[in-house]
User: Which sequence fits this backbone?
């Protein structure tokens, strides 16, 4: 089992509804490419003085190799798109040594 999380934090003012719509469509495409994978989109927030403040998103992928929906080239392309949207993506990857 391989697990990948892509945390996406805005580094510039964003139209969050449009970014959310794009991310939702991108996650849908990933699910079509790997129907057996567990893929989620999470909205990240933190408590603020006037309520919760949106601080970004996280895409989580849990897959059994070799069915990974993101090879290195696809991951690089996704990260480039996220940067063009005004997000600062960070990739966290855990790979089970038994998989």
Assistant:
């Amino acid at each position: 089992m391989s697990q990948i999380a892509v945390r996406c934090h805005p580094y510039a003012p964003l139209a969050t509804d449009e970014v959310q719509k794009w991310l939702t469509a991108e996650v849908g495409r990933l699910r079509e490419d790997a129907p057996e994978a567990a893929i989620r989109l999470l909205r990240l927030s933190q408590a603020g003085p006037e309520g919760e403040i949106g601080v970004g998103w996280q895409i989580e992928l849990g897959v059994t190799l070799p069915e990974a929906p993101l090879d290195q080239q696809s991951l690089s392309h996704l990260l480039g798109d996220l940067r063009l949207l005004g997000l600062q993506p960070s990739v966290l990857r855990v790979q089970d040594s038994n998989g």
About this structure: Residues 37 and 63 are 5 Å apart (CA to CA). The helical segments are 16-33, 72-84. The longest helix spans residues 16-33.
